[in-house]
Write a structure and sequence with these properties.
With 503 residues, the protein is of the alpha/beta class. 38% of the residues lie in helices and 21% in strands. It folds into two domains: 12-254 and 469-482, Aldehyde Dehydrogenase, Chain A, domain 1 (3-Layer(aba) Sandwich), CATH 3.40.605; 259-441, Aldehyde Dehydrogenase, Chain A, domain 2, CATH 3.40.309.10. It has helices spanning 46-63, 68-84, 86-97, 101-118, 121-124, 160-171, 186-198, 212-220, 233-245, 268-280, 303-311, 331-346, 382-385, 401-410, 424-433, 469-475, 495-502; strands spanning 12-14, 17-19, 26-30, 37-42, 129-134, 137-145, 148-152, 175-179, 205-207, 224-230, 249-253, 258-262, 290-296, 350-353, 372-375, 392-398, 413-414, 416-420, 438-441, 457-458, 461-462, 477-485. The strands form six sheets. Strands 14-15-16-13-12-18-19 form a seven-stranded mixed sheet, sandwiched between helices. The protein has a six-stranded mixed sheet with strand order 9-8-7-10-11-21, sandwiched between helices. The longest helix is centred in the first third of the chain and has 18 residues, at 46-63. The protein is globular and about 85 Å long. Belongs to the aldehyde dehydrogenase family.
Length: 503
């Protein structure tokens, strides 16, 4: 499409400057509750994208030698600026993405926690030393930055996931090129502006916009050493294969089908509250949404109570007070979710709560779908096999905990899972036997705090090391092992004196 001068344009960030793109290809950023066009985002030209990488490469020459305390203090300032601008950031995020204002603040806050962790880089980027591994010989390791790194982030967490990536990459001494989702890049750009204000030097952080061409440039560019990705399995698999074949380090966090198991001894009211938030919060648009529920034994009688609880959730625009479920991000997303619900019905699942076509006063054009629940779901059904990425919960039944565990382990994905119980023995058995990277015990969305790493597994992840935490310090650094031996120059007949004598 062509650019209209009446609508604001999203800028590129190259070399510390906000740059108006010269592209002829633009995309509208649309408020999903109203269909209002908020701004237009450019699909950067090849020249502009190459300029961003070149800027990062040049900045690395000096940034890599910047004292670790200087880097740390920038992130101390950055976390302060994020806190001071929390309301503004959340309002931007809600307008372009749709999630409720409390969810939007949570999105920013979970990213802020990683920024705080990055400020402690002096304690994280430590090597090891072994003294006297042989007579007069020491061996030690250095954790040195790689160079230019890049990140590709999704629409569903446009604050948190960029903040998972570039703060830790930059804190460890790398420079960064970020490609946010073209659907909602405005809050990401505001975070980039605050990073500049905090003292991130020109060229250390660059932002480009675009679609497949931008993704492929990041995968192919010889000056980019590592790529971090969060998004769909289809795109993540493409990124991993293409970038790793180009010799880069790659980490890809991808699709999911997260299961929760309810044992009959679980705390009923607390568990139902947790389930409705985990299944329908953020309109189900999160890779850690609890999208499958397995009711074990007598807990199968809880289904009517779960439906009743889901019916109490308020569907409205994200900026409206008291909203529980906002719109999904786009008309295309709404169409896909509605299509999958139809397939669920046609394949024999029982639609016990139909959230399609809710009437939302004042927002009749919004992309709304309310909480939707299927029961009698079977593993071969489309609604079970595919990640719906909407407020749709699949309910299954099992006679025993082991039967439920077997069902989960047979699913190809391994992002997250949760067990609700009061039994310590059951909880320990579950955490030992389940083949999923992130496990919650009475915690419905077990995303770890930043001291630990995000640890999705199996089909949900490609690459050995996860985002943030200790693992990402390894991902963004090269371990260099040094073995050294020094001789006493006063030692008669030592190699140093012998060398001098030979001269």
């Amino acid at each position: 499409m062509t650019q209209s001068s009446a609508i604001p344009t999203v800028k590129l960030l190259i070399g510390g400057e906000l740059v108006e793109s010269s592209t002829s290809e633009w995309r509208d950023i649309v408020n999903p509750a109203t269909q209002e066009v908020l701004a237009r985002v450019p699909f950067a030209t090849q020249t502009e994208m190459n300029a961003a990488v070149a800027s990062a490469k040049e900045a690395f020459k000096t940034w890599r030698k910047t004292p670790i305390g200087t880097r740390s203090r920038i992130f101390l300032k950055y976390q302060q600026l994020i806190r001071e601008n929390m309301k503004e950031l959340a309002a931007i995020l809600t307008a372009e993405q749709g999630k409720t204002l409390p969810d939007a603040e949570g999105d920013v806050f979970r990213g802020l926690e990683v920024v705080e962790h990055a400020a402690g880089i002096g304690n994280l980027q430590l090597g090891e030393l072994a003294n006297n591994v042989a007579t007069g010989v020491d061996t030690y390791t250095l954790l040195q930055p790689l160079g230019v790194c890049a990140g590709i982030t999704p629409f569903n967490f446009p604050a948190m996931i960029p903040l998972w990536m570039f703060p830790m990459a930059i804190a460890t001494g790398n420079t960064f090129v970020l490609k946010p989702s073209e659907q909602d890049p405005m809050v990401t750009m505001r975070l980039a502006e605050l990073a500049m204000e905090a003292g991130v030097p020109p060229g250390v952080l660059n932002v480009i916009h675009g679609g497949a061409d931008a993704v492929n440039l990041i995968c192919d560019h010889p000056d980019i050493k590592a790529v971090s990705f969060v998004g769909s399995t289809k795109v993540g698999t493409h990124v991993y294969n293409r970038a790793s074949q180009a010799g880069k380090r790659v980490q890809c966090m991808m699709g999911a089908k997260n299961h929760g198991i309810i044992l009959p001894d679980a705390h009923k009211e607390q568990t139902l509250n947790n389930l409705t938030g985990a299944a329908f919060g953020a309109a189900g648009q999160r890779c850690m949404a609890l999208s499958v529920l397995i009711l074990v034994g007598e807990a199968q009688s809880w289904l009517p109570d779960l439906i009743a609880k889901a019916k109490t959730l308020k569907i409205n625009a994200g900026a409206e007070s008291g909203t529980d479920v906002g719109p999904v991000v786009s008309c295309a997303a709404l169409d896909r979710i509605s299509s999958l619900i139809e397939r669920g019905v046609s394949e024999g699942a029982e639609l016990v709560l139909d959230g399609r076509n809710p009437q939302v006063a004042g927002f009749e054009n919004g992309n709304f779908v309310g909480p939707t629940i299927f029961s009698g779901v079977k593993p071969e059904m489309s609604i079970y096999r595919e990640e719906i990425f909407g407020p749709v919960l699949c309910v299954m039944q099992a006679d025993t905990l082991d039967e439920a565990i077997e069902l989960i382990n047979a699913n190809p994905n391994g992002n997250g899972t949760a067990l609700f119980t009061r039994s310590g023995a059951a909880a320990r058995h579950f955490q030992e036997e389940i083949d999923v990277g992130q496990v919650g015990i009475n915690v419905p969305i077990p995303v770890p705090v930043p001291m630990f790493s995000f640890t999705g597994s199996r089909a949900s992840k490609l690459g050995d090391l996860g985002p943030y935490g200790k693992q990402v310090v390894q991902f963004y650094t090269q371990t260099k092992t040094v073995t050294q031996r020094w001789f006493d120059e006063n030692e008669v007949g030592g190699p140093v004196n012998t060398t001098i004598n030979l001269k």
